[in-house]
Amino acid sequence: MSRPTAGDDPSLENLLGLDGMRLVLNGEGYWVKIDAVRVPPSPERPYGIGYTLTLHAPDGGRLLGYDNAHPVRLGRGPGAAKPTVHDHRHRGEAVGPYQYRSAADLLVDFWGDVDAVLSERGVR
User: Fold this and answer.
1) According to the model, what pLDDT value does residue 17 have?
2) In this predicted structure, what is the pLDDT of residue 60?
């Protein structure tokens, strides 16, 4: 599958419209932050957007995050691949690549993981 480019994604404007959103999810204090801005298309971000979507615990600690703010090293130790992947997911301490397909898919994937994390914590 080829990587998406800036003109390929009709759902991009929907994600950009969420820039700056802070949403408290329940009475227990869990909250989501979404930042999404246009950036010049580049090999790292061919779809022309910089994004950070995060789920936070009541104490402010990040539980989950999707972003393309920096490259991610794939693997550990001297044999690890050089950092070239920018789209990635943080879940707890684990960081792994994320296959960006579209802004709509990013939101679906993120909210699915939010539901999973909250379910694991017994939050509904």
Assistant:
1) 94
2) 94
3-state secondary structure the chain: CCCCCHHHCCCHHHHHCCCCEEEECCCCCCEEEEEEEECCCCCCCCCCEEEEEEEECCCCCEEEEEECCCCEEECCCCCCEEEEECCEEEECCEEEECCCCCHHHHHHHHHHHHHHHHHHCCCC
- One-letter amino acid for residue 56 of the chain: H
Q: Which residues of the chain have pLDDT under 50?
A: 1
- For residues 2 and 78, what is the distance between their CA atoms, to the nearest angstrom? 29
pLDDT at 45: 86
Angle (nearest 5°) at CA 69 between 82 and 80: 15
Tell me the whole-structure pTM to 2 decimals.
Answer: 0.85
Burial (CB < 10 A; 0-12, 13-18, 19+), residue 46, is: middle
